[in-house]
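Thread amino acids onto this structure.
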């Protein structure tokens, strides 16, 4: 960190050249005039990825593998949103067995992403460490637990998806190959251990010292009548609105932010920001958590629904418990689907879908031409939907920390940003923070 002070001009500039424990490249610029917050900009300066553009003209069968490259942390979410949207365009109806396998694949992704974030990326903020490695000196059991849980998620992705990063077994209509029963059976013992370990994890993080920081958020997530929504449901919010995914673009839109290569998503009705992610999902679907997670939610000392973004780490813990419990149910009763991939014919059409990536709602829409090639693609990732809300939070948070020194104030802002687990490549290995005080 570099700090520059000018007594003559009363200008205070702080630059943090690298913010760890987030994914992608971006910057945070804060301008203060005395006690007034003049401007807050979450500047995403990672070069545009241009996936929507270079998907045009590609065969639809290429899409799941291409969009998986958008993010190394949540490739399954991109693949699932893509195949659901393309199947909607083609009129493909998958079997219940394939649907279960897709949820299992999603469980693997939530496990590896949540376990990493909770134990190594976010817990250090609450415990006062600069990194997960520094924390490991005093909390070795917890860090090792997080690594072991993440490994479970990776192993499940490898077994079902073909490899742990950027899976290659996902196809329109299902999977290119269904795992054998014995391949799934060997995972059961680890997942039984993992279920108990995630209960311990959630109780551990629920004991952290949380700032009192309630805000009137509009929380948005998929909601399903019969299950904890992952890859199907209606787009609901905490104000009582519930719309079909087909109507998503009638109610939410992306707008250009001059300071960022990522678009900002807002609610069309009033141009306001909104909140997506684990906390939104738990708030809107608490009663659909699996039994162990649901009982635990009543024990952790959080009053649900919570409007404190710092409780996101507890919500991630509850989701870890949930997906381990669901994964075990599927693994123990697994029978390979026959067939593993539903046949279809090319036709012109349009389709959209939304699923829940680890970080929140992910929306895809595609247009297919008569030749089976894409003519249009639209992808709205979770971090672009949260970006405006993060900036709003910082504007509200900064007056509470203006009396702190440069380093403490910067760390507190970084902590708040990490409540959202932003994915800057999709949303940061680097986040430059600049604070100007006049």
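Threaded sequence (438 positions):
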């Amino acid at each position: 960190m570099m700090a520059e002070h000018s007594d003559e001009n009363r200008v205070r500039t702080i630059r943090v050249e690298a913010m760890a424990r987030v994914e992608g490249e971006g910057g945070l610029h804060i301008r203060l005039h005395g006690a007034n917050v003049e401007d807050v900009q979450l500047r995403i300066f990672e070069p545009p990825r241009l996936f929507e553009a270079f998907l045009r003209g590609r065969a639809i069968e290429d899409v799941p593998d291409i969009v998986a490259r958008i993010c190394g942390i949540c490739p399954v979410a991109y693949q699932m949103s893509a195949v659901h949207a393309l199947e909607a365009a083609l009129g493909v109806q998958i079997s219940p067995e394939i649907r279960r396998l897709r949820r299992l694949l999603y469980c693997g992704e939530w496990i590896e992403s949540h376990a990493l974030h909770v134990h190594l990326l976010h817990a250090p903020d609450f415990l006062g460490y600069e990194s997960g490695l520094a924390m490991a000196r005093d909390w070795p059991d917890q860090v090792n637990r997080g690594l072991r849980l993440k490994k479970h998620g990776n192993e499940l992705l490898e077994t079902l998806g073909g490899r742990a990063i950027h899976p290659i077994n996902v196809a329109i209509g299902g999977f290119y190959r269904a795992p054998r029963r014995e391949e799934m059976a060997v995972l059961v013992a680890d997942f039984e251990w993992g279920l108990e370990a995630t209960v311990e994890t959630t109780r551990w993080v629920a004991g952290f010292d949380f700032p009192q920081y309630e805000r009137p958020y509009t929380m948005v997530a998929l909601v399903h009548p019969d299950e904890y929504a992952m890859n199907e449901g209606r787009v609901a919010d905490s104000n009582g609105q519930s719309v079909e995914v087909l109507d998503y673009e009638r109610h939410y839109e992306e707008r250009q932010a001059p300071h960022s290569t990522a678009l900002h998503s807002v609610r069309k009705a009033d141009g306001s920001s909104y909140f997506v992610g684990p906390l939104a999902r738990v708030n809107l679907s608490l009663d659909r958590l699996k039994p162990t997670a649901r009982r635990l939610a009543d024990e952790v000392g959080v009053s649900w629904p919570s409007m404190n973004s710092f409780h996101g780490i507890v919500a991630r813990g509850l989701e870890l418990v949930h997906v381990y419990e669901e994964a075990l149910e599927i693994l123990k009763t697994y029978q390979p689907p026959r067939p593993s991939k539903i046949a279809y014919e090319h036709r012109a059409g349009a389709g959209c879908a939304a699923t829940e990536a680890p970080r929140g709602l992910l929306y895809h829409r595609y247009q297919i031409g008569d030749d089976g090639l894409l003519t249009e693609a639209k992808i709205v990732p979770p971090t672009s939907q949260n970006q405006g809300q993060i900036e709003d939070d910082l504007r509200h948070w900064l007056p509470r920390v203006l009396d702190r020194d440069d380093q403490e104030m910067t760390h507190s802002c970084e902590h708040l940003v990490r409540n959202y687990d932003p994915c800057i490549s999709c949303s940061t290995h680097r986040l430059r923070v600049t604070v100007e005080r006049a």
